[in-house]
Write a structure and sequence with these properties.
12 strands; binds magnesium ion; alpha/beta; binds 3'-deoxy-guanosine-5'-triphosphate
Length: about 300
């Protein structure tokens, strides 16, 4: 007789084989006016390795979302101060929270009422009581899909870096942090030199490999607290918090030298590429837009100055 397959150990073994980094625990916000109910469901999810926050007052949910940023919201339907349905309707009107899945968890048995509740923007209706294992699998499936979707929405498909919209959001965030704190924030614009001729000479797919090569190098060389984004076609934007202008210039020059050493196999043989960069410190400018503009002007000077260089 054959032994049944142990799925968990099989998955663990596959993860080790593929070097997959285990995902950060799913974050779930449970909204229920009854503490005991919230605590029970929280315990079930926590036992399965998820991180859970409970909130008994639906009117507090907005504040919690900002700070806890859950992958999934599990909400009761009937609550005295504000119903789960009203909560869902309000969240669906806010662009920042619009994508977070909402799962109703209620004792409501009437299918028509369940369906009309879903019409207000929730994603699923789970009827209590539910077997703990099924609750866990329903929520983790939602969380997993929400993570995938949000990664697709915020990242560039070719390089895996932050997309234009989100790297700009990163600049805004660090700009205001720079205003409050005393630590310097530097942004840099990086543009690959003569990239049009790389494409023309070696083909567009080879050009794509160069873009991915630079993205990979930046992820390797920069810190996990830095923001790295694809700002446009062959233009990248990085935000370096807690970095002085001098330090940023040094880091970018190291990156520039490392990039110039990479060799690619193209249609006309082996070649390498270079980039130019412009650097600006946020504290010298009134807003994030003018900081980016200053970095762009420095980048222009680097191009004019002969390319393959970093300018402040
Ligand atoms: P410079 O040194 O002045 O920056 O010259 P350049 O040729 O790099 O600049 P230009 O703006 O003339 O050309 C940019 C090229 O980047 C043109 C465009 O076809 C190419 N490009 C933009 N996005 C992609 C992409 O996703 N993949 C590939 N392979 N090429 C791209
Ligand atoms: Mg209730
Ligand atoms: Mg270019
Ligand atoms: Mg360009």
């Amino acid at each position: 007789q054959t032994k049944p397959i142990d799925l968990i150990s099989l998955v663990n073994r596959l993860d080790r084989l593929t070097n997959r980094v285990p995902e950060a625990p799913y974050r779930v916000l449970i909204v229920d006016d009854q503490r005991a109910v919230a605590t029970y469901h929280a315990a079930v999810l926590e036992q399965a390795g998820m991180r859970v926050r409970t909130e008994m007052n639906p009117l507090q949910v907005m504040a919690v979302l900002d700070e806890f940023s859950p992958d999934v919201i599990v909400s009761d339907v009937y609550m005295p101060s504000c119903s789960g349905i009203e909560l869902a309707a309000v969240l669906r009107q806010q662009e920042v929270f619009d994508h977070i899945p909402i799962v109703f968890l209620s004792g409501e048995q009437d299918v028509d009422k369940q369906i009309s509740a879903l019409g207000f923007g929730a994603d699923d209706f789970i009827v209590k009581p539910i077997v703990p294992e099924r609750f866990v699998s329903a929520i983790s499936a939602r969380a997993q899909r929400a993570r995938t979707l949000s990664a697709v929405m915020t990242h560039d498909g070719l390089t895996g870096l932050l997309n234009h919209k989100n790297i700009k959001a990163g600049v805004d965030k660090e700009f205001s942090r720079g205003l409050r704190g005393s630590s310097p924030v530097v942004i840099a614009l990086i543009d690959i030199d003569h990239f049009k001729s790389v494409n023309d000479t070696h083909g567009h797919p080879t050009g794509d490999r160069v873009l991915r090569g630079l993205a990979h190098l930046m992820r390797q060389r920069l810190r996990s607290t830095d923001y790295i984004g694809r700002y446009g076609g062959e233009e990248f934007l990085v935000v370096l918090p807690d970095t002085t202008l001098e330090a940023a210039e040094k880091v970018l020059n190291q990156l520039r030298e490392a990039f110039a050493c990479l060799l690619y196999q193209g249609e006309q043989g082996e070649f390498s590429a270079t980039f130019s960069a412009g650097v600006a410190q946020t504290c010298n400018y009134p807003d994030s837009g003018s900081t980016i503009k200053a970095a762009d002007e420095a980048l222009y000077a680097a191009k004019e100055g002969g390319r393959n260089q970093v300018r402040v």
